[in-house]
Amino acid sequence: MRGWLLAGLLLQSICVPAAERVVSLAPFLTDMVIMLDATDRLVGVLNDGHLPPEIDDIPRVGGHQTLSLELIVSLKPDLVLAWDSGNPPALLDRLEGWGIQVLRFDPKDLSSIATTVERLGEALNAAERATEMNQRYRAALAELAVPVDNRSPGVFIQLWDDPLYTVTGNQLIGDAVKHCGGRNVFENLPGLAPQVGREGVLAANPDLILVLADDGKSVTEWLDRWRRFPQLNAVRRNGLHVLDSDRLVRPTPGVLDGVQRLCELIERQRRPAQASATG
Description:
This protein is an alpha/beta fold.
């Protein structure tokens, strides 16, 4: 699932009539169609190996690197839901050139998830359901919001170990760190998921190191490597943790579970308030 972290362009909204035959080319969009109770409109989906069992009977049109233009067209969709920076541009352009409506999305922050829900609700004739989902989603986000201040802990998000990759502030997880009142120590780097050096992490001296993983098999040794540096705040303050990447990577309202866990870990590392000077 770490591949979901490597892309990001601005969300593009396109008005379309309600669709009856829908092909989804991104798992997060498939998830949202299911959440909107519009599963019966799906005639084809991209397979990432993590699809829910209720759509086992729906044809697969390939994986992230193996999408089949022929399979998509053979399903005669009146709407294709696309991940703007995660699907091959040439494939999307050809579909549009053949008169197939392509609705492109790329939610890269918490607020644009709600925008995606709204646009999908319009496209699938599920606007009322979308409104209900967004009301709950936005209310939950508001409860979790913490302003960044001088008590905010420094946070390092680790996507991979050798070489080290992290996230910037231009990406969904980076946005979630800020929403929870954390200070991403590499927030201002260019791009979305840049490579960094171990020396750079040591110099940034984060209070919290969070490793994103699909499972816990490979990451225990990643954390052990940081324990070799007892001078790190994250080591001294017991700030080494693993987060389930699925809970933070798929940009749907379901991300709330991951954001809540992230906020809990950041809150634990908040620095004590400094005593006011008495003069």
